[in-house]
Amino acid sequence: MILEGKNVIITGTNRGIGRAMLEEFAKNGANIWAHARVGTPEFFEDINSVAEKYHVEIRPLCFELTDYEAMKAAVKTIMSSKIPVDALINNAGITYNALFQMSSIDQLRNQFEVNFISVFIFTQYIVKLMTRQKKGSIVNITSSAAFDGNSGKSVYGATKAAVVAMTDSIAAELGANGIRANCIAPGITETEMLATMPEAVVAEAKATADMRRGGKPSEIAKTAVFLASDLSSYVTGQTIRVDGGIK
Fold first, then answer.
1. Rounded to an integer, what distance in angstroms lies between the CA atom of residue 208 and that of residue 195?
2. Strand-by-strand arrangement of the 31-36 sheet
3. I need a labelling partner for 198 at 20 to 30 A (CA). Which of 18, 56, 187, 233 fits?
């Protein structure tokens, strides 16, 4: 178990890639601060089940990404526990599909607020803890849309490109403090988000990928485990595309 004894924060753990990360990190021995937007009975039941299954501790963090007072309160909870934070996985986010000329200013603002600004602010808080420890790994989930210029993804892709730029700067600024920062850029992945995309677009993306299929959430999660672990101790400022070879 390559994360045994490590303490990790993962955002957006109630479904999709985040839920796969919850499972994969616990399987590898990590204790987890598991974030969800809303603390439903189903969410609490799920994290307790995973914790019992893998004999790790999983603590809930429940707040809206754009509720910065609630975010600050969650960070205070983490700080008051006196538990070191070994890795932060910024996974939570939202998608949006619209042609450039059809994209509204409200959606533009909402996408950047959720996918970039909230990640920026939350990472600032956690970096304060990591700086005191002189160690830590930050893993930001971006997207192949940040690089590939997909039709209908001008807004979403821009938010994810902003995350990549932020990550590169964090890596440069914090490396001397023992803090690493990297991105994972998934391609088409078999999650609920696929339902928001036109079927023809999804089919074309799968057909043009070298592996001729979409990714599994567990495949993204395993890459995150690697970047959070000491196996990647000399990897920073990188974006790893986990996209099956999309062209």
1. 19
2. 58-62, 31-36, 7-10, 87-90, 136-141, 179-186, 239-242
3. 18
- CA-nearest of 182, 196, 192, 169 to 229 is 182
Of the candidates 68, 96, 125, 156, the residue annotated as catalytic is: 156
Nearest by Cα to 140 from 175, 107, 112, 115: 115
3 state DSSP class of 51: helix
Residue scoring higher pLDDT (243 or 182)? 182
**Collapsed DSSP state (helix, strand, coil) of residue 114:** helix
Residue 83 three-state SS: coil
pLDDT attached to residue 219: 94
The domains found in the chain, sorted by start residue, are 7-241 (3.40.50.720)
| Separation CA 39–CA 50 (nearest Å) | 16
Q: Give how far Cα 150 sits from Cα of 161, 194, 246, 247, Å.
A: 13, 15, 11, 11
- Which pLDDT belongs to residue 196? 66
Neighbours of 43 (CB within 10 A): 19
Taking the whole predicted model, whether its pTM rises above 0.85 is answered as yes
Distance, in Å, from the CA atom of 47 to the CA atom of 54, rounded to the nearest integer, reads 11
Short-list 226, 216, 186, CA closest to 93: 186
pLDDT for the residue 21: 98
Backbone angles phi, psi at 21, to 5 degrees: -65, -40
Has 156 been annotated as catalytic?
A: yes
Residue 75, helix vs strand vs coil: helix
- E strand residue ranges, 159-233: 179-186
